[in-house]
Automatic annotation (TrEMBL):
Species per Swiss-Prot/TrEMBL record: Podilymbus podiceps
Name used for this protein in its record: Nucleolar MIF4G domain-containing protein 1
Any one GO cellular component localisation term in the record: nucleolus
Gene Ontology molecular function: RNA binding
Residue span(s) of domain MIF4G: 25-222
InterPro entries in UniProt: ARM-type_fold, CWC22_splicing_factor, MIF4G-like_typ-3
């Protein structure tokens, strides 16, 4: 039972909150509508001020909603517009905090997964994929996620997926090659295998052949073979990003190293990629593998060290392995490497 006066106070509070959010939405919307390359500096500055004046959660939700409404439409969005919107997210991600990019990324990936499963005729999938590609281009997310998406698309391998693979490779193929050439090579091999087995089922054979040619051109670092490939706009905006990001370097250390599976299973694993995010779920994924690994490391330690560990009351596997690492390392670098393992 809620007494009338308390109920009244709650209602006025809700109305007040709604009014505040409405005002915030209008301000953010106004800034996003004016967004273009020349005024990106001033708009990102104003957005940062809004982040300082309002709660992070409200700002993240408002910004994500407005950007999704602006960029995810049934018609293909101009690439330039996409890049500018994502660049704004990237600047805020580096200057305000990584939860800005993380919130936006999670929303985009979930929406992308929904549209992939549905039979929507529009261009929503391409638009969402372009957002993910540019989040990678502007150092918000690590190439791990892009490879996860490509593997998923290759495993399904229908006409729609082939189009999406081509679209993604055209946007970020050469960056992927630079970041992880081996993973790209494995992906190409897998795609060739799929193309051979799915030959009879697919009507449009030329598209598959074109996709394989594009992949081989990527592997051989041959930019001429990819029609319409133009890295200039991205490079130009990356330069602008470097001038607007306050932290040193291009922000490789703030890249979110998160897999597709983790993003889709947030309820099971929590948002472990955001520092300080609270989570009240079931215990994290089963640790049987990590236990076996610890035992393996321990096996290499000598019985003398093990005896010392026992004397120092190192009574769990992990304590013993840390003790052994510290006692047997040659120097601090060696200890650091072993502890990371």
């Amino acid at each position: 039972y809620v007494p009338p006066q308390v109920r009244k106070a709650q209602e006025t509070l809700d109305d007040k909150k709604r009014e505040e959010l409405g005002r915030l939405k209008k301000m953010v919307n106004g800034l996003i509508n004016r967004l273009s390359e020349p005024n990106l500096s001033s708009i990102s500055g104003q957005m940062e001020e809004l982040y300082m004046a309002n709660s992070r959660r409200d700002m993240n939700e408002t910004l994500t909603d407005i950007l999704m409404n602006a960029c995810v439409t049934a018609v293909a969005m101009p690439a330039r517009l996409m890049m500018e919107h994502v660049l704004l997210v990237s600047i805020l991600h580096h200057n305000v905090g990584i939860e800005v990019g993380a919130h936006f990324l999670e929303a985009v990936v979930k929406k992308f997964d929904e549209f992939c499963k549905s039979d929507a005729e529009g261009k929503e999938c391409e638009n969402l994929l372009a957002l993910i590609a540019h989040l990678y281009n502007f150092h918000v997310v690590h190439c791990l996620l892009i490879f996860d998406i490509l593997k998923k698309l290759v495993s399904i391998f229908t006409e729609k997926e082939i189009e999406l693979i081509l679209f993604l490779l055209k946007n970020v193929g050469f960056s992927l090659r630079k970041d992880d050439a081996l993973a790209l090579k494995e992906l190409i091999t897998e795609a060739q295998r799929k193309a051979n087995t799915a030959e009879k089922k697919l009507q449009d054979q030329t598209r598959v052949r074109f996709m394989l040619e594009t992949m081989l051109a990527l592997r051989n670092n041959d930019m001429r073979k990819i029609p319409g490939y133009n890295p200039e706009p991205v490079e130009k905006l990356r330069k602008l990003q470097r001038t607007l990001v306050r932290s040193s370097g291009s922000g490789k250390e703030t890249q979110l190293r998160v897999s597709l599976e983790s993003l889709l299973n947030v309820d099971q694993v929590g948002r472990w990629w955001i520092i300080g995010s609270s989570w009240s779920g079931a215990p994290m994924i089963d640790n049987t593998n990590s236990k076996t690994q610890q035992k393996l490391h321990l096996g290499k330690a000598s019985s003398k060290i093990m005896e010392l560990a026992r004397k120092q009351r190192m009574n769990t596997d992990i304590r013993r392995s840390i003790f052994c690492v510290l006692m047997t390392s040659e120097d601090f670098l060696d200890a650091f490497e072993k502890l990371l393992k």
